[in-house]
């Protein structure tokens, strides 16, 4: 029987009269990677801070490795690791000195553990350099190593690739995937980089205004999508104006040379006929497979696409 490592039941957080987190529930097993996504202000960081007991909850229950956090405060230090989007260190200490300092808070964290983590995150050669000389990416790696010192069963990552270049982002996400697959650590990660979450997460939670709008396996989220088409055009303004006239068509995104639109009952030919009389010089309509970003935008959309044309 596969053991549930973390379970969250009906979690709520209220500030004054505003429900920032509203009855959030989910569970995860060893090696799960859960992507927690939502617009800014949706309640993602608040949820993570509640799980790590940085702030209090209003109601609900959280269980880590079968133990309720309210009754077992030592569970956090023993079984949970956390790193934020901008991890802080003692800049005039070296990387290895920073880890040794934190290691004193935990039993049974020796130098072998510290060295193995530095190797895992690719900082062995920089271990004896002062952190003030570290790049943003190196600090993110060191933050990941610090979060893993106590051999946690759950690791919470809030925007772990903030400020990194594309290569740095790829490397961090590769480490996270390796951590889940090889060490069977359960990962809860919040990020706006949905392209990467799509690749490494086996479960997705989408929240908006504190409420869950999707929770389930990553591959299942694509079932909520209608058919998607990309209109390639040299005049997005005309295309948008026409699409806004018909309720059947829902504009998902647009940029300078294309418009992505979803529709329930129409075909590509229907869409082509609708746009034909615009007499555009260069136009094509392509059916596309939805990305996680496309699905996310559909799920959190509250108002019709903003008419900025």
Dominant shape = globular
The H/E string reads EEEHEEHEHHHEHEHEEEHEEHEH
Structural class designation: alpha/beta
Per CATH, the architecture of the largest domain is 3-Layer(aba) Sandwich
Helical fraction equals 25-40%
Family: Belongs to the ABC transporter superfamily.
InterPro entries: AAA+_ATPase, ABC_transporter-like_ATP-bd, P-loop_NTPase
GO molecular function: ATP binding; ATP hydrolysis activity
Keywords: ATP-binding, Nucleotide-binding, Transport
Descriptive key words:
single chain, alpha/beta, Rossmann fold, Alpha-Beta Plaits, six-stranded mixed sheet, four-stranded antiparallel sheet, 10 helices
Notes on the structure:
InterPro entries: AAA+_ATPase, ABC_transporter-like_ATP-bd, P-loop_NTPase. Belongs to the ABC transporter superfamily. One of its GO terms (molecular function) is ATP hydrolysis activity. Helices cover 31% and strands 29% of the residues. The strands form three sheets. Strands 6-7-8-3-9-10 form a six-stranded mixed sheet, with helices on both faces. Strands 2-1-4-5 form a four-stranded antiparallel sheet. The chain is globular, with a radius of gyration of 23 Å. It has 309 residues and is α/β, with parallel strands linked by helices. The relative contact order is 0.14. Strand 9 (203-208) and strand 10 (211-217) form a beta hairpin. The protein folds into two domains: 4-222, 3-Layer(aba) Sandwich (Rossmann fold), CATH 3.40.50; 226-289, Alpha-Beta Plaits. Helix 3 packs across helix 4. Residues 303-309 have low confidence and may be disordered. The N and C termini lie far apart (56 Å).
């Amino acid at each position: 029987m596969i053991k549930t490592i973390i379970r969250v039941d009906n979690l709520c957080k209220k500030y004054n009269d505003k429900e920032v987190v509203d009855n959030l529930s989910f569970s995860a097993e060893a090696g799960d990677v859960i992507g927690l996504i939502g617009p800014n202000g949706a309640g993602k960081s608040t949820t993570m801070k509640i799980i790590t007991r940085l702030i209090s909850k209003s109601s609900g229950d959280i269980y880590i490795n079968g133990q309720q956090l309210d009754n077992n405060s030592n569970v956090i230090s023993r079984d949970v690791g956390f790193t934020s989007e901008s991890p802080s260190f003692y800049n005039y200490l070296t990387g290895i000195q920073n880890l040794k300092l934190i290691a004193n808070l935990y039993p049974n964290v020796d130098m072998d553990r510290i060295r193995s983590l530095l190797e895992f995150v690719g900082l062995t050669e920089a271990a004896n350099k002062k952190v003030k000389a570290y790049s943003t990416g190196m600090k993110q790696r060191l933050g990941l190593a610090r979060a893993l010192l106590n051999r946690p069963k759950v690791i919470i990552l809030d925007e772990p690739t903030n400020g990194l270049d594309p290569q740095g982002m790829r490397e961090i996400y590769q480490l996270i995937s390796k951590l889940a697959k090889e060490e069977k650590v359960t990962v809860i990660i919040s990020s706006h980089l949905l392209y990467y979450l799509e690749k490494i997460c086996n479960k997705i939670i989408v929240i908006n205004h504190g409420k869950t709008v999707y929770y389930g396996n990553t591959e299942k989220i694509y079932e909520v999508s209608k058919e998607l088409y990309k209109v390639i055009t040299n005049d997005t303004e005309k295309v948008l104006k026409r699409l806004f006239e018909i309720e059947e068509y829902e504009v998902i995104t647009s940029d300078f040379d294309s418009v992505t639109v979803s529709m329930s009952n129409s075909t590509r030919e229907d869409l082509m006929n609708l746009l034909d009389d615009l007499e555009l010089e260069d136009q094509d309509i392509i059916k596309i497979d939805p990305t996680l970003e496309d699905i996310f935008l559909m799920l959190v959309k509250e108002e019709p696409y903003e008419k900025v044309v």
